[in-house]
Structures are given as structure tokens and as C-alpha cells.
TrEMBL record, chain A:
InterPro entries: BOL2, BolA, BolA-like_sf. Belongs to the BolA/IbaG family. GO terms for molecular function: 2 iron, 2 sulfur cluster binding. PANTHER family: BOLA-LIKE PROTEIN 2, BOLA-LIKE PROTEIN-RELATED. One of its GO terms (cellular component) is cytosol. It comes from Seminavis robusta. This is BolA-like protein 2. One of its GO terms (biological process) is intracellular iron ion homeostasis. SUPFAM superfamilies: BolA-like (SSF82657).
TrEMBL record, chain B:
It comes from Seminavis robusta. The lineage of its organism: Eukaryota, Sar, Stramenopiles, Ochrophyta, Bacillariophyta. Coiled coil: none annotated. Residues 83-147 form the Glutaredoxin domain. It comes from the Eukaryota. Keywords: 2Fe-2S, Iron, Iron-sulfur, Metal-binding, Redox-active center. GO terms for molecular function: 2 iron, 2 sulfur cluster binding; metal ion binding. Signal peptide: none annotated. This is Glutaredoxin-related protein 5, mitochondrial. InterPro entries: Glutaredoxin, GRX_PICOT-like, Monothiol_GRX-rel, Thioredoxin-like_sf.
């Protein structure tokens, strides 16, 4: 299982996420080596939670994977926000 | 004002790159000239010694040892600089796309900010992650408070929230 699937599974489970998408965007310009990942999480648990706190929730789940990841860029949306982005 | 700038430069926060860096540097040069003048006319025996005094050693690459010292230094940075950015590279030459994006956003907001290049200071690089419990660089602080990394700063810039935070009075 690639790191993307691993992360998707972990995040989906921990945040009861409706939608999780993790993409490897390492291609080319890595400054440090390690994965560069893009993560989209849509979870009702983000309702009423400030952006910084949402990111912290995800960071916490991925704590042990962080050593392998150089950069993680994420979008953390509530289902309503996701709906409006579609 | 000169003495203030000097004091700021001679303390341990000398690794900060401020927006007013040029001003600080020119006042430093002026001060150094004054000093050498004083030494030359004085009877200080140091004038005859071949070693230059420690005061004249380059300050920029001050080393930071140990986590505790690093964290104490970060605390004094974020409390002493209203807008403080920890980044890779410096604002005119960011060494990472994420740092570059935050610098770009701050410029668009028209914000004055101070920065530290964590690539020069490994202890700060690790220390700042512990300090904020945030795993990545860049990190932006306003009025002593951790605001976020690249994604959060970008999103807050787009929503207009960042402007509010930056305009907040201390």
C-alpha cells in the first residue's frame, strides 16, 4: 500500500470523513526529499472548528508519518463547504 | 535610535532579518566607524594587538545551541516582532515554494514583517516546530500568536481574514 492510500485510510477512519483524497505531488521540485502530498478531507467533525484547529487534527493523526513527508498541503472542509466547492 | 538599533543587533535576536535591515546595517556601519576611530586615538592596548576584538566578529551566524535556548529565543522573537515569519531562505530569495508563497502573500497584504532563515539555524528549525506544535516550515506569528503555515495563510488571505489579523492592534 502506498503512503497515499495509507494516509487516506487513517484520516477517513479517525475523522469519519465523507471524502478523503491524497495525491503525491512530489514531482520535480523537492527541496528536502521526502514526499510532497496534497490532502483533501471532508468531515462533519470540522463543523464549527477553526482552520488552524482542523489542520492540527489532521497533523495529529499523521504524526508518525510526518517523518516521511516533506510537505503536506491540505484542504479541510465541512460537507457543506465541499458541496459549495463542487 | 542608533543606540536602540545597535542594542537590538548586539543581543541574541541578531539573527532576525527585519524589513528595516538596511537601516540597521547602515547604522551599524556608522557605529563601527565611530568605534574604530575611538580605538585609533585612544591608548587602549588592544590597538596594538593583532587580534581584533570579539565585538567586531560577524554576528549574523550566531550559533544557537540546545533546544531550551532555541525555544527561549523563539519566544523573544515572536513577542518582540509583531509579524514574525520562520522560513527557508530569506524574503528576497526563498528556498522553498511554500515559504515563497507566504512571503508573496505578506507582500500583497502590504505587511512589514521580520523573518528568520531556519536553514541557517538548525536548532531554531527544530525548536520552532516544538514551540508551535506544528510540524512544518514556514510558520507565521502575529502579536506572539501562531497563525499557521502556508495553506492556512493562503486560505486566510483569500477570505480576507488575514488582513483583519494583520491590522489588529497589539
Amino acid at each position: 500500500m502506498g503512503i497515499e492510500e495509507e494516509i487516506q485510510e487513517k484520516v477517513a477512519k479517525a475523522l469519519e470523513a465523507e471524502h478523503v483524497a491524497c495525491t503525491d505531488i512530489s514531482g520535480g521540485s523537492s527541496c528536502d526529499g521526502g514526499y510532497k502530498l496534497e490532502l483533501i478531507v471532508v468531515s462533519p467533525k470540522f463543523e464549527g472548528v477553526a482552520l488552524l484547529k482542523r489542520h492540527r487534527m489532521v497533523n495529529e493523526i499523521l504524526q508518525e508519518d510526518m517523518s516521511k513527508i516533506h510537505a503536506l498541503t491540505m484542504k479541510t472542509w465541512t460537507p457543506a463547504q465541499y458541496e459549495s466547492k463542487k | 535610535m542608533l543606540s536602540n538599533a545597535l542594542r537590538r543587533c548586539s543581543t541574541r535576536s541578531s539573527l532576525i532579518l527585519g524589513v528595516s535591515r538596511t537601516a540597521v546595517r547602515s547604522s551599524l556601519v556608522a557605529a563601527a566607524n565611530n568605534n574604530s576611530h575611538l580605538v585609533a586615538v585612544g591608548t587602549n592596548p588592544r590597538f596594538l594587538s593583532s587580534d581584533s576584538h570579539d565585538d567586531f566578529a560577524p554576528q549574523k551566524k550566531a550559533t544557537v545551541d540546545g533546544e531550551e535556548e532555541a525555544i527561549a529565543m523563539i519566544k523573544s522573537h515572536v513577542e518582540g516582532n509583531r509579524v514574525m515569519l520562520y522560513m527557508k531562505g530569506n524574503p528576497s530569495m526563498p528556498m522553498c515554494g511554500f515559504s515563497a508563497r507566504v512571503v508573496d502573500v505578506l507582500k500583497k497584504e502590504g505587511a512589514d514583517f521580520s523573518s528568520v532563515n531556519v536553514l541557517d539555524y538548525p536548532a531554531i528549525r527544530e525548536g520552532v516546530k516544538k514551540f508551535s506544535e506544528w510540524p512544518t516550515i514556514p510558520q507565521l506569528y502575529v502579536n506572539g500568536e501562531f497563525i499557521g503555515g502556508c495553506d492556512i495563510i493562503t486560505a486566510m488571505h483569500e477570505s480576507g481574514e488575514l488582513k483583519e489579523v494583520l491590522e489588529e492592534e497589539k
